[in-house]
Amino acid sequence: MSDSVPVSLSALIRRRKPGYSLEAPFYTSSKIFERDLEIIFGRHWIYVGVEPDVPEPGDCMVVDIGRISVVVVRDDSMAIRAYHNVCRHRGARLVHEPKTTVGNLVCRYHQWTYGLDGNLMFAEHMGKGFDTSCHNLKPVHLRSLEGLLFICLADEPPSDFDGMAAALGPYIAPHDVRNTKVVKEVDLIEPGNWKLTMENNRECYHCGGNHPELTIPLFAYGFGYAPEEMDEVQREQAGRYACMVRDYSAAWEAMGLPSREIEHLDDRITGFRAQRLPIDGEGESQTMDTKVACRKLLGHLTNPKLGGLTVWTQPNSWHHFMSDHIVTFSVIPLSPEKTLLRTKWLVHKDAVEGVDYDLERLTEVWIATNAQDSELVGYTQEGVRSPAYEPGPYSPYTEMLVEKFCNWYLARLAAHLDDRHAV
Amino acid sequence: MSDSVPVSLSALIRRRKPGYSLEAPFYTSSKIFERDLEIIFGRHWIYVGVEPDVPEPGDCMVVDIGRISVVVVRDDSMAIRAYHNVCRHRGARLVHEPKTTVGNLVCRYHQWTYGLDGNLMFAEHMGKGFDTSCHNLKPVHLRSLEGLLFICLADEPPSDFDGMAAALGPYIAPHDVRNTKVVKEVDLIEPGNWKLTMENNRECYHCGGNHPELTIPLFAYGFGYAPEEMDEVQREQAGRYACMVRDYSAAWEAMGLPSREIEHLDDRITGFRAQRLPIDGEGESQTMDTKVACRKLLGHLTNPKLGGLTVWTQPNSWHHFMSDHIVTFSVIPLSPEKTLLRTKWLVHKDAVEGVDYDLERLTEVWIATNAQDSELVGYTQEGVRSPAYEPGPYSPYTEMLVEKFCNWYLARLAAHLDDRHAV
Amino acid sequence: MSDSVPVSLSALIRRRKPGYSLEAPFYTSSKIFERDLEIIFGRHWIYVGVEPDVPEPGDCMVVDIGRISVVVVRDDSMAIRAYHNVCRHRGARLVHEPKTTVGNLVCRYHQWTYGLDGNLMFAEHMGKGFDTSCHNLKPVHLRSLEGLLFICLADEPPSDFDGMAAALGPYIAPHDVRNTKVVKEVDLIEPGNWKLTMENNRECYHCGGNHPELTIPLFAYGFGYAPEEMDEVQREQAGRYACMVRDYSAAWEAMGLPSREIEHLDDRITGFRAQRLPIDGEGESQTMDTKVACRKLLGHLTNPKLGGLTVWTQPNSWHHFMSDHIVTFSVIPLSPEKTLLRTKWLVHKDAVEGVDYDLERLTEVWIATNAQDSELVGYTQEGVRSPAYEPGPYSPYTEMLVEKFCNWYLARLAAHLDDRHAV
Fold first, then answer.
1. Chain B contact present for C420, CB below 8 A
2. C354 Ramachandran zone, left/alpha/beta (phi>0; psi -120 to 50)
């Protein structure tokens, strides 16, 4: 496949037609893919997992982003830290298992030994002149947003993480991520560019035709619609849905559960959005029967009917918080045409499998939905490769948040390209 | 493997030594491969299948050429049309199965719905300002030569298709392709550049040593020979073969079956060749016992002993028409070192399997021959990768049509490179 | 993965910090990989196998190095020759099996037939003007060092092969390679750059932590150590080891077995090193019980306790010669991140399996050790890909021969880059 980008990246960014999908090179060019890794994933806050991924001292989780490998580790003081997963001797990868527990971080090659604080404690045969303190592990910035872990690979991370945390924290806190456990984790490799995975997530225009399981708990009118295309009956139904959302929202907020939409997807460096919406049927959870999948509710929650709180962050995550469980998604680019979607299911840390929850019931909706989305991403990747592809129009009623994802993405690329030109 | 082309493509074309195989970059360079897709497969008439591939309204066949996907569809008026297989919304591939039957062409992603005429009939949620007529499928040029389907991906296809159709039509028409059915279709991925697949087809110098099945129906003297290398006996046999060809030819032409060689492989844009030659043994068909494989003959034919009509087109097809069945081959480049050979076997549409024909007997000669050729193509690809490879001489007696293929190919490249320079 | 080399290769060579591992592009860049093939493997003496690989006239062995394929063949006069494995007609690969026996070298495509002397004997249909003598196989330089076969792909091989042969010959000769047979051959594809495979071989700092089998016959003090890090007990043990080496060496030399280290790894074009060291335990062979694995000793040897003679050549080989068997290793780059390690086990040609030797006992130490090293090479490759990798310090006591490998490699690259600039 040709990798030629017909014009410069800056020109591609400038000439983008608002309201339309991106030009093909954004999905196929390996040169732009390298920029995505360098700028988008190299200089922004990237969601990588949850505190319960490393519950105890010495617990490690490895996260690979492009050519970079990071080890996230809980230290003896219970703080979580992140390091480049590279020995300072001859560069061997330090930790190989996706998750493991260690006393110290010992390189298998020549047994160079680092503490959980990243400091080189011991290296044999190096002689007198050798200064261990010059060979500590290289740290990576890490922040926790109420238990959601974000890393930033840049020396100077975007400074607006605190603003996001202040805004999203009250929404997430009642679901008490820190007192959950990860009961299922699935890595799915989608056959498309990472932006197609994100765009697919940013709209539900495709849900009706493709997600028979997910559309059980989700209300169709929540996906958006063009009012002028509706008949009398539909207009009345849509009106009733809007009232329901308003009433539920008010009730939840009265319980101390922030619910109203906050949306800063394309007007800040660390873009985000949150909204709590009612669930159809029994109204409890994103399950096949819309009832809770885990009898033990999260944190101090007692009411199962809390709808679904959706949290999105740019560039690479979304999360569904219900009263009984959380499903959390992180997107990692693998190549211009391959993307890792990592999904984790969390329940209360004291919930007992077989008693409080059944793993299949807990996971079946999103396992099915992810598989369907992966196919759609693949079909789109196949299509946009064609020279016959040209950007098409987004629906102003159902795809406006796809547009905001594209806006954010292009603005972030442009900001860093400008930086470089300035230098 | 290095992809460096030591000199410019124009220089490589200019310095080609007539009568010798091409320099290595033509078989290995991904840059030249891109040119082949763009110029050879992007601006010439490409053979892709037969009318019986889509016998009924709504029948679709997908053809992928490089990054381009085309859907060939029979519409309700029984006309055959071709479109780019890309939704005009967000670019998803429309039709995924190699062959299928549809009512309309509906995109799976968001259900945008196109008629068999390519027009966008329906797209939900797009609002008032949206003009469906600006979002029809993009058409692709398609022509049928007595049932053989050719597409051209260029805006302006070569204008000499009609000339080829006028010349080849009378040869092909008696075999009545439109009233056949495809009873077997095999996709073989050959481990070499597409031009090695074509060159392998353009000579039978290799047949004696490699094709024990195919050389049963084919006469060895039909492969060519150097007269000066023959002894007395061979010379006499060759003379008798020449007389037989002349006599059969005259007899078939008297029956209304054009048989004499017409050859325009390298003197026109849409190169072609046709010739009907006797078959050895029982003289009926390219089978292991040289008798017909299908009792029901094609069209209105009644005489099984019609030899084999071979039709070649540049750049990518060959076909064998016998009294009882047709074998038709299309070649599609997949990568510099991988090529799809798609073979289809056709019999009369009313022939009944198990009664009129046995599928194994029908297909065994060419299934074996294709596998043998694929190995030879692979060996050649492995060899020409070596810096030690240098172009070697073609036999002036058995490889002159390989030379014509190379001539045509280089001339077509050169013509379009010149175009571009002119612009 | 990005292939961009941030600075020129010359600059990378110049700025290399002595005593430190190489910068990442040397292990990851496909551009530098091409230079490695062209300069290091294209212009130096490359170890490819042993005379017993082709014991009889007509025996062939194929060796593939990058895009080049070479056939090594024993001719009727028992001389060993090497040719490019490419037919002079249309470039097909001539010999496909890794090892085979032929009468003549016949191309499968069109039966062009070459003698074992490489001369084209026969080509059909080429007509009167065709001169076979212009179409002989292209020869490749080949030399034998007491039965070890080296080829050089350059027109003008380095002239110092004789010097290496004169120095190493007396060490190797008593083991009589020519009268051995290859009883096991294993191809292992290591997941790393070929230089990581070589560097791994050039030190035993990693042996204690990774090679439980190999460290049975090898003495730990032979791996090197920093004297200032030792306690009283260790110092005494190290002293005793040094005396033992000195005494054994003297005894073996008295028997006519050169044993003292000769080392020219980075001060000549064809770098090499040899040393015979005692074996631990029973002192006989690199086996799990440190006793000979083959009852019939090599050549005219009668004493099983001859330690292990290690021979290294730059850029791509190492060999262990014991009294009873030889293990010989050749390293061939496959891609920037894949390397072939070809290991052969040799015993006396008259030894009988099941009587004189047991194949599992013979091979188990190095099969295990190779698998462990392959993992370490893979971990290092994964780590050096990271932008967080920076060259780390070699131990001056245990990794000085890794340093010499790097020195040799960089000097050889630089010499040929200069050549080119001069031209």
1. no
2. left
